[in-house]
Amino acid sequence: METNESDFSSLRGVLADAVESAGVTGAVNRRRDDEGEFLELRLIGSRRLPFALTAEAAAAWLEAAGVDATVDCRDACLVISLRDEWTVDRLVERLLRPFMYAESVCERLGDALAPHRLHPQLSLPDSGSLVLALRDSEALGAAVRLGALLGAWDIGEGLKLHRPGGMRKLAARMRLLLTGALGRGVRVLAEPGCAHEQDELSIYLTVEQGLRLAGRIAAESVRAEQEEPPFPVEETRIPPIWISSDP
Length: 247
Fold this sequence. Notes:
The chain is of the alpha+beta class and 247 residues long. Helices cover 43% and strands 22% of the residues. The protein has helices at 5-22, 55-65, 85-113, 141-149, 164-182, 207-227; strands at 26-33, 36-43, 70-74, 77-82, 121-126, 129-136, 187-191, 199-206.
């Protein structure tokens, strides 16, 4: 497959955007040698790479992934050379697309939470996992607001959230709530703060569960707006019963 200079100019932009969107530390440049023009992906660090930062490990991964590219080490960097559009597309699909998708889910989840004064730290341990960390110095008030947003307005009721035991019970309730909403495999951990660190509740999800959570928050927000009464009504509140796995 032949690729002309204008194509390489466009491909450079596509590959550079993909590298940035995937959160990979690298730079893309156009190069020319005796065989013609090509793109050079210079990987500066190993962040989010499925192989070690060595030519041998990268070459083995590229071959297994069906990416017809050459690789070598120069100036303490790993350099991958790509000579046609098909190879660039294949590299983007196999190396970068998973984290590009995961990053888009994080952005969507952050956008869904922001209007509700929830600004968690979102991180990706790998391309299939997402961690949502809620930090505050108000007895995990942010976590309580998230529970209310998902319909459990009483999730913190009866708990002493300024104490480690109350935080652990909140984490157990949140796990039950999110498991019902998103499916199995949710983990929730609470970590009391100290003089220099805020209290933290961390929620461990798959990326697909993160996408479902974003959709659920958006749906709950719309439903709440639609069901808001035109005038105040008196509520009859029934004390909640929580079933927890904590002893």
